[in-house]
Amino acid sequence: MFFTFLVSSILQSCENPNGNQKGDNEGEASSSTGNIIQNETIISFHDNTSKAKVKQIIDNAILQGFEVDSCGCGDLYLLKDNLSNPNLTPDSKLASTGGTPGQRGNGNVQGDAYAHYNIQLELDPVYDPNASNDPITTQNPPTSQGVFKIAIIDGGITHYQNLSDFLWVNNNPDPCYLDNYNNDRNGFDFTIENGLSPTPFNMHGTFISQIIVEPFIGTQIQIALMNVRIFDFEGKSNLFDALCAIEYAIKKDANIINISWGYYRSIADDLAMKSDTLLYEYLLKANTANIPIFASAGNDTVNTDNKFHYPSGFFTINADPNYLPNLISIAALDDNEQSLAKYTNYGKKSVFIASKGTHLMNGDTIRGTSYATPDALSYALILKNNNIIMSPGDLKNCINNNAAIYGFPLFTEGKIDKAKANCP
Hints:
The chain has 424 residues and is α/β, with parallel strands linked by helices. Helices cover 23% and strands 21% of the residues. The protein folds into 2 domains: 36-119, Alpha-Beta Plaits, CATH 3.30.70; 129-415, CATH 3.40.50.200.
């Protein structure tokens, strides 16, 4: 059912295995631009396209020899062909099935669906095999399901006993996500044909989860971690799986989404492939569902106002047409938490605020915007706990108003101020 494919460039976690200046045991990796997979096309059907028309197009695609894959019961499909005509564009392939390609613009939905190139995405290995593999020590985990469901869209969460106590339990398995592990009991693994228990590729998602959970051990604030895996055992992913994961988090009523990965795209690429527009639309769906998204800014010392890094780089300023009120992009502070880390990306428009990027896990130091992001998210949980009905836009404004100002080249010019737990 689920393949590792699609749309928008080599997607990487914000950590790199090379133990250089960009990090210690877990250093920071560059996010990079991916390669088009010429024989794979993503098809995104419009909401107003009838089920009969969708079935007709997909049936025609199968008759023509396309291999077809879908994302749960949603409107996303992948067409894979044998490259008998490599010059066919995604729109041409959709048209060959009897579908009318849509054209964005003029405020109208046109055609049956949008067609996009599939792009290879990869994740560099990030876990140092020499680091301790002992369970992370916690105490007094909550005994009931948490109020806050946090979707960790990453490489999976290790089932250490302590984090198992914090895993979301789905009491209403979804027939759209059939698998061999009691359906989607704790989340879903989009990296293999049948979703299994999301076993991690490395410790990246586990460390992110621990950073979120740690401040709330022994408190009344309860957390449920939704384990949504998009990186496979080779560290590869794709935007199609990421879109499926965002859609899954929305359907399962996640309260917040953590995205500690990203990719670069130039303006020319945007115009040529339109693929980032699809990601934007799914993030906007999350906003409509009242879900804030915390996204890492990347670790290449890049001004992402000029070299766009997605999804964190969808601009922060209201006047920009790509503005997403629910997107909160996070830079990393240095070890002393008084300056930006040397490796972090930045941008007055494209990066919102900085948070703690250096953490100690099992006696090892980890660094990166991947880990600054859940640190900021944990602060947001405190704010939302004090105002449970707060909208994503209000949460973003509250974080902005509470920021400690340091003159950083970021939208807020500052960092998360954890001493301020209420909104002005």
